[in-house]
Specification:
521 residues; mainly alpha; Fumarase C, Chain B, domain 1; Fumarase C, Chain A, domain 2; three-stranded antiparallel beta sheet; two-stranded parallel ribbon; 9 strands; elongated; HutH; lyase; histidine metabolism; Histidine ammonia-lyase
């Protein structure tokens, strides 16, 4: 989601685990990836181990046997190259809409990173060719459906492996769909003929769901800060109190996320003439603000802490080498279950839950602005001429529709499991599905917060001649540069919503507030 491009300095594999921002830099912003000499040495060493098993009379899974429920078949030497090709071709069975380019690039990078650990037994040539494809901006066409989040993201990774073989469809660096063989030839890349164990090594990992988790964490971190800004603006525009955001109150409940959100709201509300206009005013009979205003830091703070937990899980996964079988540090080739996506699937579902709740409280604040009985003397629906004009009435409908959808998307995918491969793979994580629905939820949350920003901006301007806080004024000015957030007669509203959405996506809203507040959490 985030458009702001970080440094394009290249990333070197083999110098330590990837970080979440490394995934974003490569997947979203096209940073180049290199292999360290240490990584190549490790790959060469473990490839020797695999080649030593190739002629062994004892069957070794993925080297001289079939796969999944067909692992009981011993494959003769002359059929083993075909075994690897057949694995990739048969498993490239995705269906449905095409997956986004950034997701495929994240998936490719993560598989390359695992291959570069030297724990998979792949040949250096195969790894280097895969890396050439990524750096050339060639993106295999991957489809929505095909992964159960166990035994790896099999179908998505197989579509990528197919391109490595010079087969299937890809998009070139210009986004044009073409045959993989033609795209590789145009980039001067020779397709690979897979050897023992390589097909399995290319498709056996949690890379798709992990890549989407890293992207979502990055987007949600910016979104929760934006939501703090929109919440503060709503408090201001609804003549609410900033007293519940005092640091000593939040110290009484030392949840780290809520303290950070409360601090953000204090900074945004600082110096507000609107707030000062009703501070300690006897005519204001309200003892407490509604929960959607008063409890904003507690909800956003819980979201923050959940994101931090998800980031820890992602970092552990980024430090992993996932394959089956895997070459251990002491040279054994062992079957294992590390490809099971449960740890990643759980936090993907958890993030969808908190995203839905953050959207829900945002929508409640918007609705409060539009209700004359609760908006403290603003016009109904913030309309210019209520009755003739509908104001922002239907913008809240749009918000409500998205929040309702997000609540459905919060239903966890990870509690489901459908057995596959003739009951050999009898429990799966559905982590890919959890990641796909989280992406939709993150996009919806972005739009919900954008509508709250529009609503708060209009409500605050209707408080004139009272002036808003300096940070609020900076945000309203930034929103006004790309869309219309001023009060006035009804107009075509969808473009203004889209403009506000883009201002959230590209970080304009946070940047504008920070010109006044300094760095926000």
């Amino acid at each position: 989601m985030t458009d702001t491009a970080p440094s394009q300095q290249s990333i070197t594999l083999g110098d330590g685990p990837l970080r979440i921002d490394d995934i974003v830099r490569v997947a979203r912003h096209g940073a180049r990836v290199e292999l360290s000499p240490v990584a190549l040495d490790a790959v060469r060493a473990t490839r020797g181990t695999i080649e030593g098993l190739a002629n062994d009379t004892v069957p070794h899974y993925g080297v001289s046997t079939g796969f999944g429920a067909l692992a009981t078949r011993h494959i003769p030497v002359e059929l083993r190259a075909q075994l690897q090709r057949s694995l990739v071709r048969s498993h490239a069975a995705g269906a449905g809409p095409e997956v986004e380019r950034e997701v495929v690039r994240a998936l490719m990078l993560l598989r390359i990173a695992t291959l570069a650990t030297g724990r998979t037994g792949i040949r250096p040539k195969t790894l280097e060719t895969y890396l050439q494809i990524l750096n050339a901006g060639i993106t295999p066409v991957v489809h929505e459906y095909g992964s159960l989040g166990c035994s790896g993201d099999l179908a998505p990774l197989s579509h990528c492996a197919l391109a490595l073989m010079g087969e299937g469809l890809v998009r070139n660096d210009d986004g044009e769909v073409m045959d993989a063989a033609d795209a590789l030839a145009a980039a001067g890349i020779t397709p690979v003929e897979l050897a023992e164990k390589e097909g399995l090594a290319l498709i056996n990992g949690t890379d798709g769901m992990l890549g989407m988790l890293c992207l979502a964490i990055t987007d949600l971190r910016q979104l929760v800060t934006t939501a703090d800004i929109s919440a503060a603006m709503s408090v201001e525009g609804l003549m609410g109190s900033d007293a519940p955001f005092a640091a000593d109150l939040h110290a009484l409940r030392p949840q780290p996320g809520q303290a950070r959100s409360a601090e953000n709201m204090r900074k945004v509300l600082s110096g507000s003439p609107i707030r000062d206009s009703h501070r300690d005013k006897e005519s204001d009979t309200r003892v407490q603000d509604a929960y959607s205003l008063r409890c904003a830091p507690q909800v956003a703070g819980g979201v923050r802490d959940t994101i931090d937990h998800a980031a820890r899980v992602a970092e552990w996964e980024l430090a992993s080498a996932i394959d089956n079988p895997v070459v251990t540090l002491d040279g054994r080739v062992e079957s294992n279950g590390n490809f099971h996506g449960a740890p990643v699937a759980y936090v993907l579902d958890f993030l969808a839950i908190v995203a839905a709740d953050l959207a829900s409280i945002s929508e409640r604040r918007t609705d409060r602005f539009l209700d004359k009985a609760r908006n403290h003397e603003l016009p109904p629906f913030l309309a210019d001429d209520p009755g003739v004009d509908s104001g922002l009435m239907i913008a809240q409908y749009t918000q409500a529709a998205m929040v309702s959808e997000m609540k459905r998307l919060a239903n966890p995918a990870s509690v489901d499991s459908i057995p596959s491969s003739a009951m050999q793979e009898d429990h799966v994580s559905m982590g890919w599905s959890a990641a796909r629905k989280l992406r939709r939820s993150v996009d919806a949350l972005t739009r919900v917060v954008a509508i709250e920003l529009i609503t708060a901006a209009r409500g605050i301007q209707l408080r004139a001649p009272l002036e808003p806080a300096p940070a609020t004024a900076a945000v309203i000015a930034a929103l006004a540069e790309s869309g219309n957030v001023a009060p006035g007669p009804d107009r075509f509203l969808a473009p203004d919503i889209e403009a506000a959405y883009e201002a959230v996506v590209d970080g304009t809203v946070v940047t504008a507030a920070e010109t006044v507040t300094g760095r926000l959490n």
